């Protein structure tokens, strides 16, 4: 089975099996909620992962509403799916700042085929969460945004890290998007379960685009140096 088919099978089987979520928090599962997300994500993985080669794993936090929540591909919004991956998309066209940064970095690395030939991106929690704010608007919610949610999803996260390792990723090094709570939690799990030999954390793309835009090139260079350190 190719890497692509393993990921497609993993996505198709995704369902939340953890403890009940805190009141007001909803699970977001694009592979159960959107036929378009299933279609375009399958095309994406068969385009870039149609082989049996191992990759290094990159773990974000959890999917967001305007990126993977619509496309099923982590850090890939509909705009980048079309413009950078050249995969047609029919549906709501959104702009996710994290996706902008990631694809600028991928371009600097050498392009989508070269990058995805070496790396596989997903998240500590492969399903997303949303909440409703005081004005009735749906908003992204991170697994660590409340102690109650983190406690509820902990076993589910551990289970899915093991499953993603089983897809055929290299375990000498794992990359972490997020140098705050996401890094802290991943290191805690890695210290306990020894999933990976080393954790390399990088500032989260959303943080860079929101607070460090003027230094974006510096962060792109930092990403490239980190990724090239494991590329033969």
What is the strand arrangement across the widest sheet?
3-2-6-7
Tally of separate helices: 11
Quickly count the domains: 1
Alpha carbon gap, first and last residue: 24 Å
Globally, the shape reads: globular
Short description:
Helix content is 47%, strand content 16%. It is an alpha/beta fold.
Can you put this structure into words, describing what you see?
The protein is of the alpha/beta class and 232 residues long. It has one domain: Uracil-DNA glycosylase-like domain (Uracil-DNA Glycosylase, subunit E, 3-Layer(aba) Sandwich). Helices cover 47% and strands 16% of the residues. The protein has a four-stranded parallel beta sheet, sandwiched between helices. The longest helix is centred in the C-terminal third of the chain and has 19 residues, at 147-165. The mean pLDDT is 97.
Write the layout of secondary structure elements.
Layout: H1 3-13, E1 25-28, H2 30-33, H3 35-48, E2 55-60, H4 68-71, H5 78-83, H6 97-109, H7 112-116, E3 119-123, E4 128-132, E5 138-141, H8 147-165, E6 169-177, H9 181-193, E7 198-202, H10 205-211, H11 216-228
Helix pairs in contact: 1-3, 6-10, 6-11
């Amino acid at each position: 089975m190719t890497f692509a088919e393993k990921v497609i099978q993993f996505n198709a089987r995704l369902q939340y099996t953890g403890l009940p979520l805190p009141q007001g928090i909803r699970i977001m599962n694009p592979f159960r909620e959107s036929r378009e997300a299933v279609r375009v994500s399958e095309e994406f993985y068969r385009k870039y992962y149609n082989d049996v080669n191992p990759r290094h794993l990159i773990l974000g936090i959890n999917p967001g509403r305007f990126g993977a929540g619509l496309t099923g591909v982590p850090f890939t919004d509909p705009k980048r799916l079309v413009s950078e991956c050249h995969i047609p998309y029919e549906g709501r066209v959104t702009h996710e700042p994290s996706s902008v940064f990631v694809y600028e970095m991928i371009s600097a690395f050498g392009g989508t085929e070269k990058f995805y030939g070496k790396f596989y991106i997903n998240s500590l929690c492969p399903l997303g969460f949303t909440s409703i704010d005081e004005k009735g608007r749906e908003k992204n919610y991170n697994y660590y945004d409340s102690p109650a949610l983190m406690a509820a999803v902990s076993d589910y996260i551990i289970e899915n890290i093991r499953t993603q390792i089983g897809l055929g990723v290299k375990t000498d090094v794992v990359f972490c998007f997020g140098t705050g709570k996401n890094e802290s939690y991943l290191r805690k799990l890695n210290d306990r379960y020894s999933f990976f030999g080393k954790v390399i954390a990088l500032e989260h793309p959303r943080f860079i685009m929101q607070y460090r835009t003027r230094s974006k090139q510096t962060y792109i260079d930092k990403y490239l140096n980190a990724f090239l350190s494991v590329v033969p």
